[in-house]
Specification:
The protein is mostly helical. The protein has six helices and two strands. It has a domain of 53 residues. It is globular, with a radius of gyration of 14 Å.
Length: 109
């Protein structure tokens, strides 16, 4: 069975990873429901969240749309907690999660 910890360890051994990537992986694992046992989709989500985006995005509008769709976006200290209702919602967040975190830290909606 494919395990997230093994995938993270292999990735770290091949690449010099930043602590940010480890935090993202840990957050996704903590938010994933145990009953689903969707480990491969979780790994794909980690890769999507950790990939930077080149497109400019209106963060305030994106946050409003996500919350209207039922996504929970919370921040605590320097972490962003995301509870999507559908896996495709992570695709909307993947390139701008740092900007979303900064926006939530500086101006609560």
């Amino acid at each position: 069975m494919f395990r997230l910890n093994d995938a993270v360890r292999r990735f770290q051994s091949k690449n010099q990873t930043l602590p940010v990537l480890r935090c993202v992986a840990k957050s996704v694992v903590n938010l994933s429901p145990d009953a689903n046992r969707g480990i491969p989709p979780t790994v794909a989500s980690v890769a999507a969240v950790a990939t930077p985006s080149s497109k400019p995005v209106d963060i305030k509008l994106l946050i409003q749309q996500l919350r209207n769709d039922g996504v929970e976006l919370l921040h605590h200290e320097n972490t962003l907690h995301i509870r999507p209702r559908h896996s495709h919602q992570l695709e909307q967040i993947h390139g701008c999660w740092k900007a979303i975190l900064l926006f939530l830290q500086t101006s609560e909606m």
